[in-house]
Amino acid sequence: MASIAENLSESQTTTNSCPKHAANLLKGFTLLWEDGTLCDLFLRSSDGRKIPVHKILVTTCSQTIKRNLGCLKQGETYKCGRVPHTALSQVTCYIYSGVLYVNRETVEAVNSVAELLEIETLKTLCKFAKDCGTQDALTEEQVFHVIRRDGELQCLKDDTSLRKESCDVASLSRTSGSILNNGHGVTKPAYRSKNDTFPEEHSLCMVNDDHFAEVVQGLKQFHTDVSTCDVILVAEHATFPTHRAVLSACSDYFRAMFTVGMRECEEKKVTLHGLTSVGVGAVVHYMYTGELQLSAASLQSVLEAANALLINDVLDMCLDYLLETMSVDSCLTRLHQADCYSLDRLEAAADDFILAHITQVAKLPQFQDLVCDKLCEYLDSDQLGVSNELEAFRVALSWLNHDFTARRQFAGRVMSHIRFPLLSIEELVRHVRTVDFMRRDEECRALVMEATRYQKCPTQQILLQTRRTQVRSANKVLVVVGGSTVEGQADESREEDRWEYAAALDVGLLGHACCAHGSGVYISGGRSIARGRNGFRLYDPDSGVTELAPLRHARSNHAMVAVPGGFLVFGGENGTITIAQVEMYSSAGVGKVAVEHCGKATLQV
């Protein structure tokens, strides 16, 4: 298979940061915490109750736990002294969410936990909470955001009412009553629903806007720390020391592997078969840092690893890279990759690119490998990037001739998507009829006959409308017919780069009716100066304006609609005479529908 980024230098590497990684990482940890899975440390309060946590996450926030990391064994309990259980649970919620809920009564206790665990940012939040509680009368909807500006933390009040979005990731329960006992002396946080109200006793919500980024920053130093890891990934001959909790927080694949009783739950080494060390190394680096390094040489391996390990953020970053580097030479490879990895956005972008550059793409060897269905999809599109239908015909012809013996069975099907009626008689004779199978194949011969008839009988074209008579266009076009200008305003409002001259009418018209149908615009009646007109015309982008059979009655300010097989023209006026008649244009000519006073009508031909 061709390189996925063949238009780039093999040595060119880009480092991309994902703005969603930190929030998604904490969300993953929170889901694990909610389920009580992979928690490898217990924080014990003064009353003996324990709160399960993930040691690696707490370490990124607490200097105390970080210093004692080497001494804390798997599943060990860390005694937090005389810390109240409620305060300890609130601090735990903060670690997982970056959101602290306090009031005047609890802020001191929470601050004592922050000092014990040496969580510097949390101590600052407690100080802000004390100041805010002193300055303002507390209400149940006071929210404060703590942000870092110029190296210093600042506290800003959020005047909007508290919403679920304020907590974003955790939406955690905030009272001691929401900590449930699981029967073993270990407590597990219960999560509040979207409809929960703000508890009256907790009057301040302190949101650390930088918490997620701080966690990722703290996690980076454990990326290659063998002494703290609990599982080693093996890909090819390379090893990667990691933490089960980090892997599970970032990857649904690893979460299932380590939480549903598979054998890997107990193994120290996990071999990832079928993945390269380059790909695994890149995604592991991303999990710990939020940064992904991509190059033309590594992209394929990274894409395979992200797809196999179900890391959607990395897939999205690979997708963005693929989209940014798409070219004529690579678009067909992009299409293949989109199909392999079910990347719908990439497939849509590749399709659009191929359609826009179809004449160039058709010259590539890979184009000849397209399946018939995909080729027909392109040829049928209104967005096909051809200047005329002859180019579309040549694209189809090149694909068929690549292996005509095997593909001759598809000739009629492929050519049915070429809009032959839009070709002139001369083009049909010189370029289409000279192709042998276009004369011999029954379906192809019928297509040529259809196009010939369409071109030879312009007055009958309204009855010959099909998908093949529609003009291709990637953009909708507005056609303005006749009318009058207001002196002194016409030139001022015209944009020369948006409007262009299309064709001339034989006479100026006012009060006429227009109807877009098929590949053209039909124009009926109208008046010129004070004289009524009964003309019926067709404007076609290829052939210009053609006079058709005139109306029986000159009329203006009337209505016209397209119906199967023709047009109906309603009412209008001719000078001072109001016309109470309906005329129908059809292949037999123009008829008149006499309208009776009872509302019924009969057709007179």
How much of the sequence lies in strands comes to: 15-25%
Main sheet attributes: strand count, strand direction, barrel closure: 5 strands, antiparallel
List how many beta strands DSSP finds: 27
Widest sheet: strand ordering: 21-22-25-26-27
Rounded to an integer in angstroms, the radius of gyration calculated over CA atoms is 37 Å
The CATH homologous superfamily of the domain at 41-218 is called Potassium Channel Kv1.1, Chain A
CATH class of the domain at 41-218: Alpha Beta
Protein name: BTB domain-containing protein
Pfam families: BACK, BTB
Domain BTB: 229-296
Keywords: Kelch repeat, Repeat
What's this, in brief?
InterPro entries: BACK, BTB-kelch_protein, BTB/POZ_dom, Kelch-typ_b-propeller, SKP1/BTB/POZ_sf. The chain has 605 residues and is α+β, with helices and mostly antiparallel strands.
Task: Kindly describe this structure.
This protein has 605 residues and is of the alpha+beta class. Among the domains are: 41-218, 2-Layer Sandwich (Potassium Channel Kv1.1, Chain A), CATH 3.30.710.10; 378-475, no CATH class; 500-604, Neuraminidase, CATH 2.120.10.80. β11 and β12 form a beta hairpin. The longest helix is centred in the first third of the chain and has 16 residues, at 120-135. Mean pLDDT is 82; it is low at 1-10, 161-200 and 592-605. InterPro entries: BACK (IPR011705), BTB-kelch_protein (IPR017096), BTB/POZ_dom (IPR000210), Kelch-typ_b-propeller (IPR015915), SKP1/BTB/POZ_sf (IPR011333). It holds the Pfam family BTB. Residues 229-296 form the BTB domain. Keywords: Kelch repeat, Repeat.
